[in-house]
Amino acid sequence: MPASFTVKRSVDIRAPADRLFPRIADFNAWSAWSPYEKRDPAMKRRFSGKPSGVGAIYEWDGNRNVGQGRMEILESTPPSKVRIDLQFMKPFKAHNVAEFSFEPHGQNTTVTWAMYGPVTFMSRVMGLFINMDKMIGKDFEAGLQNLKALAER
Fold first, then answer.
1. Which CATH architecture has domain 4-151?
2. Is the pLDDT score of 5 beyond 90?
3. What digits encode the pLDDT tens for the residues 67-104?
4. N or C: which end of the chain has fewer CB within 10 A?
5. CB-based burial of residue 142 (10 Å sphere; 0-12 exposed, 13-18 middle, 19+ buried)?
6. pLDDT at residue 11 above 60?
7. Cβ neighbours of residue 72 closer than 8 Å, sequence gap 6 or more
8. Which residues, other chains included, contact 79 with Cβ-Cβ below 8 Å and sequence gap of 6+?
9. Residue 14 to residues 9, 71, 74, 111, 139: CA-CA distances in angstroms?
């Protein structure tokens, strides 16, 4: 297996990048589109740091479908890019980077959601049974479709 992985999905949305960007750069807005938010209605959420942009922090602790983790925005370049430090504590430990990019073209914007990081020993073991690209990619596709539906209303 390679030493690192990347999962990436994109969608074209009929909306300007500056209207989409705040839905990513503010973790409070994620509940409207993120597929992970719906998996555990009782999930505990904690927001700290800045309200949005660099320094915004979102921590969660939920059931086995969402686990426990923490995200912090490391880079926020309106309206083109948001880079997030992503740490999972449960059900397994992992440290990755999530990145959203916005590429305007005409009246549309291509939004790309990517995640990359090292392939740890646990990832290698899981890779024997689970295709991470298909598993995570399916979630990214659902989230991007939710974002598209929300923005195009």
1. 2-Layer Sandwich (3.30)
2. no
3. 999 999 999 999 999 999 999 999 888 899 999 999 99
4. C
5. middle
6. yes
7. 49, 55, 56, 57, 58, 84, 85
8. 16, 17, 18, 20, 21, 102, 104
9. 17, 28, 27, 11, 21
